Amino acid sequence: MDRYAVVGHPIGHSLSPRIHRMFAEQTGQEMEYSAIELPLDGFEEGVRQLQAEGFKGLNVTVPFKEQAFALADRCSPRGRDARAVNTLIFATEIERDEDGNEQPCPRIFADNTDGAGLARDLASHRVLVPNRRILVLGAGGAVRGILGPLLVQKPELLTVANRSLERAEQLRDDFAHIGPLQACTFQALNGHLHEERYHLIINGTSAGLSGEVPPLPDDILGIHSVCYDLMYRLEGPTAFQRWAEERGALMALDGLGMLVEQAAEAFHLWRGLRPDSAPVIEALRDDRP
Predict the structure, then answer these.
(1) Which of 49, 99, 258, 269 has a CA positioned 20 to 30 A from the CA of residue 127?
(2) Which is catalytic among the residues 65, 120, 133, 271?
């Protein structure tokens, strides 16, 4: 039976095993999927060991996405743009040595499905990106994975705000070949730089882990603004969702749908089949307290 896993640190909270089990049942695939915690200083050794044990592929979560990109032998264009990947595919290629003898060579192929997952979840809620003003909060690996798919949809304006201006400007420069984006600090959002209101605000920071929200002006939302948190909480709304609801956002969405959609994209890369995400998302939300 083909084996897959999600690796991270920590990993005990991951919903990925349940998601992929539902995908496998839905599509009639015989496969095993587990969650494996790798040590912070042993990512490469752990991945190569799993490959040697016969695993067919891995999902990669925090804090290893950038290390996974560096480890890959080949990478998709969206993975190269992000310089961080969340999906690994193990394969064996046949190469010839100096004497012309064929030798099996293990290879690691990498992709980033986060942006595709976000785009599909936004579309399922009928949230438009083309010709809209979009604000993205944060400049870490999670944000790197979504900027390319957002830019190709040609928003009217895409702004990345971060505590450190240098990191936001680095993203602006790294993604300039796809489309223009502005870079600023959170502090600048409270000044004259961005007096317009945004149609879509995406929180890609880790502030929610401590129940906090990035420092944003209350008047940055319009009456039709949508707020989207890349994080999710099974226990209820995230801090960013609560902030948005209290200020009258049209919708305040969490990242559970994106989680399932990016998993569906990875499943398609591994198995060549695209599962139906909707019943899986519904099942996970029904199980919430």
Answers:
(1) 269
(2) 65
